[in-house]
């Protein structure tokens, strides 16, 4: 596995929540930069869009690599680094014995992570980190494209 990590920043959101949503990702490897975005025109949630961004970014990688993945979502970071192991062990039920929300995306994210060596980092949203701000702008573009308008994510 190459020693130079792929640096990924992701973001996602809806307007309103729940409602139409968008996700964005910035992938950097050495001098290469790839920007990705997408969206859902129907009813989705902030959490689903926050999950879609790293899923799509990781699935876009063509070979196993070291990844430093930055998200401003504690839900995503804690979910994939802590909670998912218990959920899986408990048959995808929460500690309160309720079905895990977004189980389809959690399983897809697990599969995407399994191909790579992923280190997760939380960053404060809207704090001036250039690639996090760009991921936010890409998520807005994804939402706009999905609904064919000029919506802005908060």
Automatic annotation (TrEMBL):
GO BP of this protein: DNA replication, removal of RNA primer
The family database entries (InterPro entries) matched by this protein are listed as:
RNase_H, RNaseH-like_sf, RNaseH_domain, RNaseH_sf, RNaseHI
What residues bind Mg(2+) 2, as annotated? 11, 136
Question: EC number(s) on record?
Answer: 3.1.26.4
Q: Which reaction does it catalyse?
A: Endonucleolytic cleavage to 5'-phosphomonoester
Q: Which domain of life is it from?
A: Bacteria
| Cellular component annotations (GO), alphabetically ordered | cytoplasm
Q: Which cofactor does it need?
A: Mg(2+)
UniProt main location, coarse: cytoplasm
Q: Where in the cell is it found?
A: Cytoplasm
**Pfam families on file:** RNase_H
Described function: Endonuclease that specifically degrades the RNA of RNA-DNA hybrids.
Its family remark reads:
Belongs to the RNase H family.
User: By what name is this protein known?
Assistant: Ribonuclease H
Phylogenetic lineage: Bacteria, Bacillati, Actinomycetota, Actinomycetes, Mycobacteriales
The gene for this chain is rnhA
């Amino acid at each position: 596995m190459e020693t130079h990590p792929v640096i990924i920043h992701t973001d996602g959101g809806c307007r309103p929540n729940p409602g139409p949503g968008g996700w964005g990702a910035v992938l950097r490897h050495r001098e290469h930069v790839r920007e990705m975005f997408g969206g859902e025109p129907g009813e989705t949630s902030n959490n689903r869009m926050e999950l879609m961004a790293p899923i799509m970014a990781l699935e876009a990688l063509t070979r196993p690599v070291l990844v430093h993945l930055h998200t401003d979502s504690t839900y995503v970071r804690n979910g994939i680094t802590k909670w998912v192991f218990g959920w899986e062990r408990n048959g995808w039920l929460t500690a309160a014995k309720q079905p895990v929300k977004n189980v389809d995306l959690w399983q897809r994210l697990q599969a995407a992570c399994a191909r790579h060596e992923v280190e997760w980092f939380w960053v404060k949203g809207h704090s001036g980190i250039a690639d996090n701000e760009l991921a936010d702008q890409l998520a807005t573009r994804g939402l706009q494209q999905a609904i064919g308008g000029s919506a802005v994510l908060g």
